[in-house]
Amino acid sequence: MFVARLAGTTVFDPLGDQVGRVRDVVVLVRPKGAPRAVGLVVEVPGRRRVFLPLTRVTAIQAGQVISTGLVNMRRFEQRAFETLAVGELLDRTVDLVDGSGSVTVEDVSIEQQRNGDWMVNKLAVRRQAPSHRGLLRRRGETQIVAIEEVTGLAQTGRAQGAELLLAQYEDLKPADLADVLHDLGTTRRLEVAVALDNDRLADVLEELPEDDQVAILQGLELTRAADVLEAMEPDDAADLLGELPDEQAAQLLGLMEPDEAKDVRRLLAYEDNTAGGLMTTEPVILGPETSIAAALAHVRRQDLTPALASMVFVTRPPLETPTGRFIGVVHLQRMLREPPHDSIGSIVDSDIEPIPADAPLMSVTRRLATYNLLALPVVDADKRLLGAVSVDDVLDHLLPEDWRETDDVPAETRVGRG
User: Fold this and answer.
1) Is the preceding omega at residue 377 within 30 degrees of 0, hence cis?
2) What is the pLDDT of residue 70?
3) In sequence order, what are the residues at sequence separation of 6 or more whose Cβ sits closer than 8 angstroms to the Cβ of residue 342?
4) Where's the CBS domain (predicted)?
5) Residue 332: what pLDDT?
6) In sequence order, which residues have a C-beta less than 8 Å from that of residue 190 and are 6 or more positions away?
7) Ranges of the chain whose pLDDT falls below 50
8) Nearest to 20 by CA among 179, 131, 150, 152
9) Which CATH code of 1.10.10.10, 1.25.60.10, 3.40.50.10320, 2.60.200.20 fits the domain covering 163-269?
10) β-pair type (285-286, 311-315)
11) Which pLDDT score, from 0 to 100, does residue 402 have?
């Protein structure tokens, strides 16, 4: 069974109920002898990744894994002597015993032995094709070799690509890919982050714990780090820069495009737990003469969170923050009920009271809860719109710092890791 094909397979209990999906295989790689597979990393509902020992797997068939039904629901934490087959072995460079050169691991095969153990028995590897003058290097030949035919699988010092790993996870949402990166070792996490394009990396960084964010950003080249910060939401970029030493943050701001850096600098001027520190400077802002049809097109933007897509903020020109005088908001549901050719100025809700930038976190939270809103306008003393605070930003600050790693499964459901 090749692990790249196993990844994504559905795990069922003996009654046929779905437990989760396989995301990786945990193996023990030794300097001598074949590596042994000891368990599966399974993603269960709630995006939690748990460890399923292979001793509790009764069958691995086409498209499904059958377990005994006894699963430890505690979040998987990789131990120092464990290796993730998909996350860490794919793209690793090894040497052929016959001395014919180095190859790249493309897949790993595991096979059950008579004693019940699952051993790594074969590797799918790719030779690097020679480059010709004036031509691009072509993809090399792929072949299957026995585990005894290679050396260096246990070595982690060589630089390692991430093409195959990312191919396995290309359909994951940013939050789910962030979970994958969080579970990787520090070096491998940075290798994978470097391989992501700027927009994808920006989305993933916004979902990672602050320690991981800082480690990745500091591991990038300065110009690349500045490009990634530009691709992030201004409030998230400001939060991340606020975790860096002042000198480094100033250096990165200096490398960013002036217009992008301007919004981030403004946000850095506010205290963290205030409306100004929580807000984004890029909600949907339109003039009152805009048609409902045009406004609906704006809220369809893929980069908008559901909270920010729930309403349009209506102001006088200019429409860039800080805007002209704030008029009110138009709710998405109201726009869906009105003729598309009407202007949004005719359906403005002016009853929602905006909040000042220095409003504390609890005031923002209370206002959102009282009026059942997903976002609130933030204005200055002259009633100019500065930005908007969304409910997801408030939740991030209300939850404990380690909320992404907190295990909320009742203790009695845990059966111990085998």
Assistant:
1) no
2) 79
3) 291, 292
4) 348-406
5) 96
6) 215, 216, 219
7) 136, 410-418
8) 179
9) 1.25.60.10
10) parallel
11) 64
